[in-house]
Automatic annotation (TrEMBL):
Pfam families: Aldo_ket_red. Residues 15-315 form the NADP-dependent oxidoreductase domain. CDD domains: AKR_AKR11C1. This is Aldo/keto reductase. It comes from Evansella tamaricis. It comes from the Bacteria.
Length: 327
C-alpha cells in the first residue's frame, strides 16, 4: 500500500481507501457479517482511511466502522459527513446547535472522541456562500471534536469557492473516466493551496466495472433504481450523471482499458491514481471479493501517455455532452 498526504494536513492516508455507503444501505441487500469481514480485509491490506456519513443506513455504516476499528482508533482514520439528515435548504440545519448534534451522534455511533475529517455533505451552493457553517466547524475544531474539515461538493464551481477558505483541508468530488472536468481548474488550484482530493463515485455507480447491460435491473432499495434519473437526490450522483443506457453504451467502448489489467474495475481505479492531485480514491464495496478486486488496482500496469490522451479525447468527444445536472 502507498500512502499520500491529505493536502497540507498531518494525515497520511492509503491511496486506495473505501467508502461505506454500500454497506450502510441504499445499494441493495447487505450482510453485516460479510461487511465486517470486508473491512478487516481492507485494513489487513494497509487501508487506513474510510469515508462514511450519518445518513448511510441512518448511521449504520458508522456503527459498523466502530465495530471494525475497535482498538485501532489511532491507526485507522475515519471521515464522516453531515447535513443530509435534515432539510439541506433550511439555514437551521447548519446552525451550531444542529451541527453539534449531528457531530455528537456520529461520534457516539463511531465510538470515538474525535472525527479525523468532518465534511459538509453536498450542501446547496447558497449555504456554502453564506459561510456561517464554516464558522461552526472552526469552533468544533478548536474544541478538539474534529481534527480537520472538508466539503463534499457537486460542482467544480462549488469546489473552487470552498478553496477560498484556508481551513478547508479536503474536497470530495466525483471523478472518474466519465467525469474529468475537475482536471482543468479545480485540481491544479487545490494542489496549489494544499487541499486534499478524495475521488468519489470512481466506478460511476458500477458502469465502469463493465458488468452491466442495457437490461440490468437493481433492487427496489438500491439508489441505482430509485435515483436513476435524479428522483431522490442530485442527478449527477447516480451513474455519474449519465442516463443508464447511454452509460452502458459508453462503457462498452472502454473495454480496451482492461487489456493487461485483468478487468475494467482495476483499470478504472488505476486511471484515477495516475493523477497526482488525488489523495485517495474511495470505491464502495459490499463483500470481501469486491475489496480484493479494488485493491488489485494497485498492482496493474499504469496507463501510458498515449492511453491517457486517448481517454481524455474520449471524454471530450463522446461523454461530457451527455452528463446531466450541474457539475
Amino acid at each position: 500500500m502507498n500512502y499520500r498526504r491529505l493536502g497540507n494536513t498531518d494525515l497520511n492516508i492509503s491511496e486506495l481507501s473505501f467508502g461505506t455507503w454500500a454497506i450502510g444501505g441504499s445499494w441493495g441487500t447487505t450482510d453485516d457479517k460479510e461487511s465486517l469481514r470486508a473491512l478487516d480485509r481492507a485494513m489487513d491490506a494497509g487501508v487506513n482511511f474510510f469515508d462514511t456519513a450519518d445518513v448511510y443506513g441512518d448511521g449504520h455504516s458508522e456503527k459498523l466502522l466502530a465495530q471494525a476499528t475497535k482498538g485501532k482508533e489511532d491507526k485507522i482514520h475515519i471521515a464522516t459527513k453531515f447535513c443530509r439528515g435534515g432539510d439541506i435548504h433550511d439555514p437551521k440545519t447548519y446552525s451550531e446547535e444542529s451541527v453539534r448534534t449531528y457531530l455528537e451522534k456520529s461520534l457516539s455511533r463511531l465510538e470515538r472522541e474525535r472525527v479525523d475529517l468532518y465534511q459538509i455533505h453536498c450542501a446547496p451552493f447558497e449555504v456554502l456562500k453564506n459561510g456561517s457553517v464554516f464558522e461552526v466547524l472552526d469552533k468544533l475544531q478548536q474544541e478538539g471534536k474534529i481534527r480537520h474539515y472538508g466539503v463534499s461538493v457537486e460542482t467544480v464551481e462549488e469546489g473552487l469557492f470552498c478553496l477560498e477558505n484556508p481551513n478547508v483541508k479536503a474536497l470530495q468530488v466525483i471523478f472518474n473516466i466519465f467525469r474529468q472536468k475537475p482536471l482543468d481548474q479545480l485540481f491544479p488550484e487545490a494542489k496549489e493551496r494544499g487541499v486534499g482530493i478524495l475521488a468519489r463515485v470512481p466506478l460511476a455507480s458500477g458502469l465502469l466495472t463493465g458488468k452491466f447491460t442495457s437490461t440490468t435491473s437493481f433492487e427496489s432499495d438500491d439508489h441505482r433504481n430509485f435515483n436513476r434519473d435524479g428522483q431522490a437526490f442530485n442527478v449527477g450522483e447516480t451513474f455519474a450523471g449519465l442516463e443508464f443506457s447511454k452509460g452502458v453504451e459508453l462503457s462498452e467502448k472502454l473495454r480496451w482499458i482492461a487489456e493487461d489489467r485483468k478487468n475494467m474495475t482495476r483499470a478504472a481505479l488505476r486511471w484515477i491514481l495516475e493523477h497526482d492531485s488525488i489523495t485517495s480514491v474511495i470505491p464502495g464495496f459490499k463483500n470481501v471479493k469486491q475489496v480484493e478486486d479494488n485493491l488489485a488496482a494497485l498492482q496493474v500496469p499504469p496507463f501510458s501517455g498515449k492511453e491517457m490522451k486517448q481517454l481524455e479525447e474520449f471524454y471530450k468527444k463522446e461523454v461530457q455532452d451527455h452528463i446531466r445536472g450541474a457539475y
